[in-house]
User: Which sequence fits this backbone?
């Protein structure tokens, strides 16, 4: 065992990288849930985004195009969920599960020819001057732009929910869809838009894993990160900044766990590998005491009957 | 004659199997309070929804200020100067007052100046309200103020109010009427929906009466007898329940200093409730919605556990007993919400009969169900309570409100309870069914049972109960005999702890 | 434009028709998918749905249907009880793994002793293992109100790691020349879940699945507990009013589904699979979710749906070897089935009508 092999700068820097896919998926799901929809298909949308982004990036040679394709892929898949739950009024839990099962199958099918290929590498966006600051610069300012995009997205979602009319309407729809309908708001349309946004974010998060973090394609490579993102939204009590805090804490744990594996700690690899899931459960237990902030209409179907 | 504001001509709207409005016409003038009168299911709600753009008429036309008016959605109606205060408030519990109001406006100003405007309007019209309070924490009366202010901020020309006084104490009704008179003085017209005749006579300048979706007459309320209006509304002579003098027996159910926190975030906690009901007695519990009615029923039915001794049945502490055990003993309940609480919507009437009948009717043995017996029980309820349905295999949600309520009340009454607790027994039920249900409750008491009726309909409570108490913010006033109780006294009992403080001093 | 109109009560006809319609739609869409992959769609569909049953090699495939169908039905029956009551155990895959580990653990502890009590003891251990694993989300939900969906799912990943650890460590075959994986239980007569009738595929798991179907049928239609499960699903508040304890229902539903999933894992590890290995689990726990819905959460429906889903597994294997149809295509096919089912389910409770011209 050699703990000195763990470099704190690298550890903290890779923490931000590990947290980014989680943050993207969770911030998308937060918007969906604030609109009153529970989409359990995050895992399916992430893995679909991962392969869409990978395939396009490999074929065009442009990782940025890959990211765009991933967002589109995730959003298109989420439209299936939207059609089921918003128009066919299907149960949201079952539809979310269906989306995950479907997404896993779809990604495996598309991904057949892409195993073992290296994607085009992603340019780092070293921020001039700031990245030269010792220690801090290495941790904070030498990342690819997606890391900053995720943070910016968090800020944007926070701002939009708190200060804009669109955000207010979205929250209203998530609190009481009947009242929102009575006031003349298009509940279904707003929810479909939110679901699409969530799908695009999840797709982006998935592509971040396959294009930047790993970078490679293997079947089922998201390995439950979509589900952890769902847990993170609960952990954060549906608040954007707390989602980010949670994602970074979680990213830190993942990275630490991997570093410990690499350093050859006496704990068997399997037990280290299961730790993120166990910690998620523990966090869920701690947070489930406070249910008050959940959007009141979460998971309920809306049909304007008369 | 003042200028005509809204002219409605031959509006018709049909839903599958039911014509909600058939050829309805009415005229509203500037600055008048126009009453829209009718029983539950007469088509009042559909008519105002068409005026407010929530529902599109099948045929007929509307003219607003002489121009054709056909709002495609509420937004268009609001733009044309039509505003509406809903009966079941279209408010968002988790948002604050200002946010709620902003949602009802087309182009709300920034939050800070909106809050300023809210303060201004609320002072002008005598409706005090803090813009930054969370709506879920407000009382029913305050919530109504939010809706009214939301409407007033858009300077409407026509204000539609759907049963506005059903959530107010008599004193609060007076304040509301003051506000409405101020508005009409400014030229605003009000379309006032109600079935409470006395308040219509006190407030309204003209009335249109609907029955079964049709226009059956207009009148000037101040010059028409309440009884005549009632008969136009119902279409037949009213049947008043018969009351026989009853002998009171032992105390069957007693609540002893019951305090219970609410299970839900925006619910009401029960505080120090002490009351008892005797055999042969009907105790009426009044109060504005949301003052602890649901919680009180839950504590009595066993859905919510209370300290054992706080609830006593025949002297036995039962606060911790399960709903089944209470039914076995003879304490039965019928909650307010028919679909989803008293009955399961997608299940058949047979299954719904089993829902509470299993214990006392012996519909199960060692856990195994006796479907034949359950079906016979359902058929008996249907026959004795005149439930209009093709048979016991029909799903509960297929029944009309009145018929399902007859089934729910019948299910409990037929099990020969020693104590029956009902919440809102005739809410949303047509007059004939309401009369039948009240008669059943009276008969039950005459047979020696104790009956506890929780209701927001004061007329109903005055009609059937022997003693009256009121719930206010989770506290229950001391019970007083109904005979000789004045409206003012009732109002005070509902309006706060006044009665109690005097009693303690 | 189409418009939805709520039916006064659920349609009986459509209750039975929707699964059939979903299967037909899936076949159509699946055909298109196969065509896009450059395969003959008719041949592919025929290979999947026809060959295992009626081709000249059907004698070989038919037993396979029972082998694949039994765990699916067993797990789906358990899941359906919870799903009916709105209790979502989606971690059956994990309970399946733990059941197999516990059962195999008991067998390997006694190896090489031959005794009649070993197999029953394994069954008990398998069921208990699955039950205990499902009790984790159950108790957390009851005690802290934790979301059972997320916890049960997280536990799948934990179980997979445990499986890896076990097949590389504690349960590793000491005579396996260092390869991962346990001893083969098929070669340990006292522990082997052998075919009851040679060549039929009929093993104890199939028997257990049939018993589970009957048990669930009686429970749901004739027993108070089953009535309470259905009541909770339809109207939770009415269930509280009737006196149903949500706590007991959560413990019961998760417990039963966990135990059945554990049993399925045990029968698999002691029979068709024989070995505890890293890739022992084949996704039955997730596919069973599709089976439960396809069977409309009805025991008899689940039996039929389990058979159908087994067909796609076996037929999919044939199509894979004969036509080179990728395995993922079959997975996608199964996911599609659930999608269509949820979509057409609408017709049970709503009528679809063409929208009339709006009055102007």
Assistant:
């Amino acid at each position: 065992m050699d703990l000195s092999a763990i470099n704190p700068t690298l550890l903290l820097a890779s923490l931000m990288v590990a947290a980014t896919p989680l943050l993207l998926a969770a911030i998308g799901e937060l918007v969906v849930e604030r609109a009153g929809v529970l989409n359990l298909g995050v895992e399916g949308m992430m893995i679909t985004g991962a392969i869409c982004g990978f395939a396009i990036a490999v074929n065009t040679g442009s990782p940025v195009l890959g990211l765009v394709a991933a967002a589109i892929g995730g959003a298109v898949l989420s439209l299936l969920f939207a059609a089921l739950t918003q128009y066919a009024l299907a149960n949201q839990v079952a539809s979310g599960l269906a989306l995950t099962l479907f997404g896993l199958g779809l990604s495996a099918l598309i991904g057949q020819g892409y195993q073992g290929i290296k994607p085009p590498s992603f340019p780092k966006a070293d921020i001039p001057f700031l990245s030269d600051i010792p220690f801090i610069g290495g941790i904070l300012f030498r990342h690819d732009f997606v890391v900053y995009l995720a943070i910016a997205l968090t800020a944007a979602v926070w701002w939009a929910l708190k200060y804009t009319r669109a955000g207010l309407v979205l929250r209203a729809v998530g609190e009481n869809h009947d009242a929102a309908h009575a006031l003349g708001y298009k509940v279904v349309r707003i929810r479909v838009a939110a679901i699409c946004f969530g799908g695009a974010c999840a797709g982006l998060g998935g592509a971040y894993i396959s294009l930047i973090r790993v970078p490679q394609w293997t079947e089922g490579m998201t390995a439950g990160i979509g589900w952890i993102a769902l847990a993170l939204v609960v952990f954060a009590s549906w608040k954007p900044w707390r989602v980010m805090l949670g994602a970074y804490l979680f990213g830190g744990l993942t990275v630490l766990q991997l570093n410990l594996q690499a350093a050859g700690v006496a704990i068997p690899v399997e037990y280290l590998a299961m730790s993120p899931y166990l910690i998620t459960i523990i966090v869920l237990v701690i947070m489930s005491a406070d249910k008050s902030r959940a959007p009141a209409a979460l998971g309920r179907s809306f049909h304007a009957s008369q | 004659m003042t200028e005509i504001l809204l002219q409605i001509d031959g509006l018709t709207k049909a839903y599958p199997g039911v014509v909600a409005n058939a050829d309805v016409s009415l005229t509203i003038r500037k600055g008048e309070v126009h009453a829209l009168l009718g029983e539950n299911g007469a088509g009042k709600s559909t008519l105002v929804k068409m005026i407010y753009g929530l529902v599109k008429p099948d045929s007929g036309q509307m003219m607003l200020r002489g121009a054709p008016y056909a709002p495609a959605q509420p937004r268009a109606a609001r733009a044309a100067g039509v505003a509406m205060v809903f009966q079941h408030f279209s408010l968002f519990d988790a948002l604050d007052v200002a946010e709620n109001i902003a949602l009802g406006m087309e182009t709300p100003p920034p939050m800070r100046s909106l809050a300023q405007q809210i303060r201004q309007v609320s002072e002008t019209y005598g409706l005090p309200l803090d813009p930054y309070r969370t709506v879920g924490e407000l009382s029913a009366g305050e919530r109504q103020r939010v809706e009214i202010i939301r409407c007033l901020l858009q300077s409407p020309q026509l204000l539609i109010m759907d049963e506005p006084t059903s959530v107010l104490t008599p004193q609060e009704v007076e304040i509301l009427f003051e506000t409405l008179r101020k508005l009409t003085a400014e030229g605003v017209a009000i379309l006032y929906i109600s079935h409470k005749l006395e308040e219509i006579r006190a407030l309204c300048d003209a009335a249109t009466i609907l029955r079964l979706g049709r226009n059956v007459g207009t009148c000037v309320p101040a010059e028409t007898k309440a009884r005549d209006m009632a008969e136009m509304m119902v279409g037949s002579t009213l049947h008043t329940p018969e009351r026989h003098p009853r002998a009171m027996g032992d105390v069957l159910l007693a609540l002893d200093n019951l305090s219970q926190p609410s299970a839900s975030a925006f619910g009401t906690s029960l505080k120090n409730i002490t009351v008892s009901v005797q055999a042969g007695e009907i105790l009426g519990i009044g109060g504005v919605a949301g003052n602890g009615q649901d919680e009180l029923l839950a504590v009595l039915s066993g859905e919510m556990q209370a300290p054992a001794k706080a609830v006593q049945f025949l002297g036995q502490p039962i606060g911790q007993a399960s709903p089944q055990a209470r039914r076995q003993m003879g304490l039965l309940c019928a909650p307010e919400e028919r679909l989803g609480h008293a009955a399961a919507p997608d299940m058949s009437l047979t299954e719904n009969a089993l829902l509470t009948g299993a214990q006392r009717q012996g519909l199960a043995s060692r856990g195994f169900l006796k479907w034949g017996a359950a079906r016979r029980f359902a058929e008996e309820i249907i026959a004795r309570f005149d439930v209009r349905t093709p048979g016991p295999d029909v799903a509960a949600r297929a029944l009309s409100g009145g018929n399902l309520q007859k089934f729910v009340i019948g299910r409990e009454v037929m099990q020969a309870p020693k104590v029956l607790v009902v919440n809102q027994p005739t809410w949303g039920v047509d007059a004939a069914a309401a009369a039948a249900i009240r008669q059943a409750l009276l008969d039950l008491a005459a047979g020696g049972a104790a009956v506890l009726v929780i209701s927001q309909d004061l007329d109903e409570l005055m009609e059937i109960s022997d003693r009256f108490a009121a719930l206010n913010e989770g506290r229950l006033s001391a019970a007083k005999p109904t005979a000789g109780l004045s409206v003012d006294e009732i109002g005070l009992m509902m309006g706060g702890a006044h009665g109690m403080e005097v009693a303690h001093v | 434009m189409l418009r939805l109109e709520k039916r006064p009560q659920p349609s009986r006809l459509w209750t039975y028709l929707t699964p059939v319609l979903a299967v037909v739609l899936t076949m159509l869409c699946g055909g298109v998918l196969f065509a896009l992959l450059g395969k003959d769609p008719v041949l592919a569909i025929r290979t999947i749905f026809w060959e295992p049953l009626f081709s000249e090699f059907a004698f070989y495939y038919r037993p396979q249907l029972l082998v694949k169908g039994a765990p699916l039905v067993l797990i789906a029956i358990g899941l359906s009880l919870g799903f009916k009551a709105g209790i979502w155990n989606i971690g059956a895959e994990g309970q399946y793994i733990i059941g197999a580990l516990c059962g195999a653990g008991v067998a390997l502890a006694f190896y090489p002793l031959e005794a009649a009590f070993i197999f029953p003891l394994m069954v008990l251990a398998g069921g208990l293992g699955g039950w205990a694993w499902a009790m984790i989300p159950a108790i957390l939900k009851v005690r802290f109100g934790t979301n059972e969906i997320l916890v049960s799912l997280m536990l799948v990943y934990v179980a997979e790691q445990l499986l890896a650890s076990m097949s590389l460590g504690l349960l590793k075959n000491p005579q396996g020349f260092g390869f991962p994986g346990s001893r083969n239980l098929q070669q340990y007569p006292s522990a082997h879940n052998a075919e009851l009738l040679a060549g039929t595929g009929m093993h104890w798991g199939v028997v257990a699945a049939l018993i589970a179907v009957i048990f669930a049928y009686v429970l749901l239609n004739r027993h108070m507990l089953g009535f309470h499960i259905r009541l909770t699903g339809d109207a939770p508040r009415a269930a509280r009013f009737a006196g149903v304890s949500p706590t007991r229902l959560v413990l019961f539903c998760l417990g039963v589904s966990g135990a059945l999933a554990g049993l399925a894992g045990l029968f698999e590890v002691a029979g068709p699979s024989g070995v505890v290995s890293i890739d022992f689990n084949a996704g039955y726990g997730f596919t069973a979710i599709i089976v439960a819905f396809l069977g409309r959460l009805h025991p008899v429906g689940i039996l039929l749906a389990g058979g159908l889903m087994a067909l796609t597994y076996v037929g999919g294997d044939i199509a894979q070897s004969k036509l080179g149809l990728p395995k993922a295509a079959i997975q996608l096919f199964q996911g599609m089935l659930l999608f269509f089912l949820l979509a057409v389910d609408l017709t049970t409770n709503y009528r679809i009508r063409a929208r009339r011209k709006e009055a102007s």
User: Anything to note?
Assistant: Residues 123 and 129 of chain B are 9 Å apart (CA to CA).
